[in-house]
Amino acid sequence: MGRSKFILGGLFILAAVVYLIFSSTQQSAEYFMTVDEIHAKGDSVVDKSLRLSGAVIGDSIQYDPQTLTLTFDVAHVPGDNAEIEAQGGLAEVLRVAVADPTRQHIKVVYVGPKPDLLRSEAQAIMTGHLGADGIFYADELLLKCPTKYEEAVPEQASGN
Amino acid sequence: MLAEFGYGVLLVTFLLALYSVGASVYGYYNKSASMVESARRSMLLTFPLLSIAALSLISLLVNGDFNVQFVYEVTSRSMPAYLKVTAWWGGQAGSLLFWSWLMSAFASLVTLRKWDRDQEFLPWVIVVASVTLAFFLALNIFFENPFARLYQTFDGNIAAYTLAPANSTPIVPADGRGLNPLLRHPGMIIHPPMLYLGFVSYVIPFAFAIAALVTGRTDDRWIRITRRWSLWAWLFLSFGLVLGGRWAYDVLGWGGYWGWDPVEIAAFMPWLTGTAFLHSVMIQEKRGMLKQWNMVLIILTYALVIFGTFLTRSGVLSSVHAFAQSAIGPSFFVFIGVTFVTSIALLIHRWEDLKAEAEMKSMLSREALFLLNNLLFMSVLVVSFWGVIFPLISELFTGQKVTVGPPFYERANSPLFAALMFLMAIAPLSAWGHSTIQTLGRAIWKPTIAALAITVAIFFTYTRNWIALIGFFLVALVILVTLYEFWRGARARQKTQGENFFTALSHLTGKNRRRYGGYVIHISMMLMAIGILGIELFQNETQGTIQVNQSLELQGYKLVYKDIAQWDDASTGVNYTRATIEVYKGGQLVTELHPRTDYYYEAQQNMTIPGVRSTMADDVYVLLVDWEPASAVGATFKLYVNPLVNWLWVGSLLFLVGVIIAAWPEKDPERVTVRATRSARQTSAAD
User: Fold this and answer.
1) What is the DSSP string of A54-95?
2) With contact defined as beta carbons under 8 Å apart, do B376 and B423 qualify?
3) Mutation to test the A interface, candidates B320, B636, B637, B640, most A Cβ within 10 Å
4) Helix%, strand%, coil% for chain B, nearest 5
5) Which chain B residue has the Cα nearest residue A7?
6) Which pLDDT band holds residue B322 (cuts at 50, 70, 90)?
7) Whether A25 and B386 lie within 8 Å, measured CB to CB
């Protein structure tokens, strides 16, 4: 009798946790996509919660401090870590992505302070949604600059 | 030469650690005390050796030997000397060496304790510590050598090598790349060492647990020996987390302190199992129950500690913290897998010996409530772990990478945190063995009514947000119940001992440090909860571009833009742009704030430093977003009002006090009468 009380209590907690996890996952799932995937899927992902990663094109960065509206283009980079490694590491992949004119691009709009790390060849990881106009509206913008962190070899090391 | 010397020392230490493992195992199975002693001595030797290796690296860093790749990557000429020293843990290779150095320090400390009563544990504690140490040294030696030098090979490629390749010339860059400006903050200087201290100290209780499993001495001796270790480990880990939050608040400029980033969660997960462990060992000590469970918890904590280091260090997940991608990922995976499976196998082997000595009878007994507390901590762990690995799972099964953001963690964890708070309110009032609704009700009704009264007052004066009201009710209830416990204890002492109230209070706490230290920690958690509720539920923001003498208004504050100045600091290579803002509240000038932007020339990076005015009621937090040189055009500011967030930091200071009370060595006679032997007194003083 005493035991079954505890087992029931345990099962109740288990059920509650499972419910919390699944309902919360459903509510806040964000689909991780690359620029190519968004172009391929087009309208079917409009207004879904998305997480997009791409290489920032430096020349395209525009910022209007009056409205705090930031716009820039990102170029496609692979979403898979192994693939990035195979292509020479993140810094190299980002460099190539920005230099390659045949890459697919997507325009991003973000409202807020201009992040310190935003510059050409940074990796932008954005959450937001794709508008019907084909522009990605980011609510959150995360940047990684592999060249500023440690990576690979110096480019202009002076020999002696 | 110094670099090669340092690498050589690492190699020797690695071999020595392997020798300790071998000698310990041999000594244990062949009953050779001298072999175990030899293992112990070589273990002790690893600390001075690694200190020499570390000093070599620090010397290279401080002297700016940019031929060494690591030095090139994390320092630059313009960095002040203290930052060059702390750059030691500013990059991957160095921070792994830092880990090893701490590991050797703790292993030495623990092998120096008096072992007379616990001789049989010694070889296995050495084995676990040495295996862990050898693993981290191997990462440095085979994958991430902090002493590697840059060479240009004959085909023109520049790369780092441990030994000079044939036909190559060494490359000495003129200057290093320098530590990321974001990391040049006092919080960032102590945050990683704190976390690492926490991580590494958890290896010691784990080592004793494994020793208990191997030797079959499965009573609660291992828990008693490591009680203080786990408390300190928990303290360091908790403080590492808080400092990380403070750094984010001060430096990252998004007005927050915690973003449910995978790497934050990686440090949070061992904290969860560690906290559960801290509670459940008490049940084993008092009631002889949950022995198997405690083993599971400490094994999990160890695995999560290594996993946490792995996540921060391997860059497997996209995160602001993932500074590096490297080859060490698979090794971590294998190491975690092997140690975890081995530990679990040992646990299964001893499963029968770890049967509970008593049965849990009442659902409201203190042990049952502690068990519930453990289940809730585990639930938070499962939620967090699910969030971290969900992208990997969904990719595996659907081919589509799906992630979950902060809303997932907040939504799923909030009810669990609320339940934990409720438990914090009732568990101190319940009795070991048996409690009923009636006995609990008698104890809790007064604090409940008082907490309800406070909640009603908050409803009429501060907020009608029902989540906040539930939160504040629980906070009030926990604090009142806990204070009531202090009061009750002190009053009882006052009557029996004839002391005045404050003497009674301090004696009460002094004689039951763990219990009352724990209560102080509970109160500190509630203060932190006030801060979290405040910033999560009531944060307000606005932004705008204004000209000099124009203002922004938010939540009763009026911020007037007065001035902007810009100058270069040649010695550090930084350009500062600093705005002056006057803050008015109710027409009264309260303070002047200076949000600024620091531009680091060499790193070509901006750093946005907020201007913050902190009070217990709220923080005014203003960022200088953008500006034009001509002040007529104006500057753009982003303004946050973060209610109550200061309680978070005040709470964390009280937390420190609580842990120190709980972990302070006890010399009270009450305990000695329980554990009567002389050696027990000696060992508990040495713990």
Assistant:
1) EEE-GGG-EEETTTTEEEEEEEE--S-HHHHHHTT-HHHHHH
2) yes
3) B636
4) 65, 15, 20
5) B363
6) very low
7) yes
Instruction: Please tell me chain A's helix, strand, coil percentages from 3-state DSSP, rounded to the nearest 5.
Output: 35, 30, 35
> Which residue type, as a one-letter code, is found at position A42?
G
Domain ranges of chain A: 29-144
Classified as helix, coil or strand, B112 is coil
Tokens of residue A86, six digits: 């195979």
Candidates 3.40.50.2000, 2.40.50.140, 3.40.50.300, 3.30.1360.10; CATH matching A29-144: 2.40.50.140
Q: Where are the domains of chain B?
A: 1-179, 184-359+369-382, 406-528+653-686, 540-646
Of the ranges A45-59, B261-275, B300-314, which is most confident?
A: B261-275
Helix axes B186-201, B291-314, angle to 10 degrees: 140
DSSP H helices in B571-668: 646-663
- Nearest CB to B404: which of A9, A30, A33? A30
Edge-to-edge strand order for the sheet containing B540-546? B540-546, B635-643, B618-627, B611-614
Nearest CA in chain A to B602: A148
Distances (CA, A) of B532 to B286, B407, B617: 34, 15, 13
- B402/A27 touch (CB, cutoff 8 Å), yes or no: no
Q: Which of A27-36, B7-16, B275-284, B509-518 has the lowest mean pLDDT?
A: A27-36
pLDDT in tens, B152-202: 888 878 888 888 888 888 888 988 888 777 777 777 778 888 999 999 999
Of B316, B363, B623, the CB nearest to A5: B363
The pTM (predicted TM-score) of the whole model is 0.87
Q: How far apart are CA A61 and CA A92, in angstroms?
A: 21
| 3-state SS assignment for residue B638 | strand
User: Could you tell me the sign of the dihedral formed by the alpha carbons of B174, B179, B185, B190, in that order?
Assistant: negative
Tell me whether residues B603 and A148 touch, CB distance under 8 A: yes
Q: CB within 8 A of B384, min separation 6: which ones? A: B265, B268, B269, B272, B409, B413
Q: What is the pLDDT of residues B125-153, one digit of tens each?
A: 999 999 999 999 999 999 889 999 999 88
CA B250 – CA A38 distance, rounded (Å): 36
Task: Say whether pLDDT at B681 is over 70.
Answer: no
At A74, give phi and psi (nearest 5°).
-120, 145
- Closest by CA to B202, choosing from B289, B329, B53, B99, is B99
Q: How far from the centroid of its chain's Cα atoms is residue B482's Cα?
A: 25
pLDDT of residue B102: 96
A2 CA: distance to closest CA in chain B (Å): 6
B411 CB neighbours in chain A (<8 A) are: 20, 23-24, 27-28
Contact B91 A150 (CB under 8 A): yes
Cα-atom radius of gyration of chain A, to the nearest Å? 21
Please judge whether B375 and A125 are an interchain contact, meaning their C-beta atoms are less than 8 angstroms apart.
no
pLDDT at B317 over 60: no
Tokens in use for B209? 């647990």
Q: How confident is the model at residue B9 (pLDDT cuts 50, 70, 90)?
A: very high
Instruction: Look over chain B and give the mean of its residue pLDDT values, rounded to a whole number.
Output: 87
Mean pLDDT lowest among B72-76, B254-258, B485-489, B657-661: B254-258
Of A28, A112, A140, the CB nearest to B404: A28
Q: How many CB atoms lie within 10 A of CB A157?
A: 17
Beta-strand pair B596-600/B605-609? antiparallel
Question: What whole-number distance in Å separates Cα of residue B409 and Cα of residue B402?
Answer: 15
Contacts of B401 in chain A (CB under 8 A): 31-33, 79
Tens digits of per-residue pLDDT, A90-121? 788 888 888 888 889 999 999 887 887 788 88
